[in-house]
Design goal:
Layout lengths: L1 H7 L2 H29 L4 H29 L1
Amino acid sequence: MKQWLSIAGEKSVVLRGLKYAVIVGAILIFINHGDNIIEGTVTAVNVVKMAVTVAVPYLVSTFSSVSAIRELR
């Protein structure tokens, strides 16, 4: 677990995850909440869902990167 967290905290892994989170997260937010954004009816619940929507691609990218790096090492 310590090794996994160490790799997950590496700059390249974090930056890759953030890139994917921003790009994929923005697309998913627009798909799932675009109508609320356009209509101006975004609630606190929507904001929490949007945050989770961005967190998911970050986590997927991080898990994938860590797995690939561990395999290569």
